[in-house]
Amino acid sequence: MTAGKHVGPALLAAYLAGAPALPAETEWAVEAHLENCRDCRLRLADVVRVREPALDLVLGRVWTEVEAAEPERPAPTRPAWVRWARTWAPPTMGPWVLTGVLVALVAFAIDLAVPVGQSPLMLLLAPVVPLFGVAAAWSRRFDPLHELTAATPAAGLRTVLRRTTVVLVAVIPVLAVAGAFTGLAPALWLLPCLAFTVGALALGTVVGVGRAALALGLVWTVFVVAPSLPDEVSPSLLRQAALPWWALVVVGAVVVVVARAKSFAAPGSRY
Q: Which InterPro entries does the record match to this protein (predicted)?
């Protein structure tokens, strides 16, 4: 059957009857033609009514029930910006990102209530605040649709980076506003924040992003946050002199993420 021609009556009858002599490639060609040719579909319906009245009766009953069950109004569609936003992050990430934002706000509130001489709690927690959202960025445990997402062509590093960007866009403005009120220099918390975020992705290529975020958060809390709470000075890791080292960590982590980008899309990778 060539393009631009219609299916002949004999071929339509053979297709309807499921004739064993009809080659599979011819059957596929008929089906492909019927998908794009309204005239042939109508002719096939006429053949069904003449040769298969019982089938035509069943189809008529099915369509009647479908039309009766059809709602008067079509289902409302989500706004375009909502559909676009979901291409960047799934709804399941929302609670985790919100948790990070709430932690930053609680730390900010505590900083407003304590004497100025003590270590700002927000400065201590700012580096690990994004880890709440990063943990859910690429995790089978936290995303019920992870397997479907991992099977799409866009899966892998691209999806991880998009979701991580959403986390940073949500968290960094909150930290910036809170830091401005408490008098913290943005560089003191921004570079460590980026270092922990990219570091979680780099370590995640080995142990999984969720585990990496949890491990880095625990290490920072135990060895930096907890010992610094009784002190009246900020830890050395969060001073101006440590910023070049944080920058090196960011660069090194980026190199690891790029070099091991395929691990995010590997079928046997850890999530």
A: Anti_sigma_zinc_sf, Znf_put
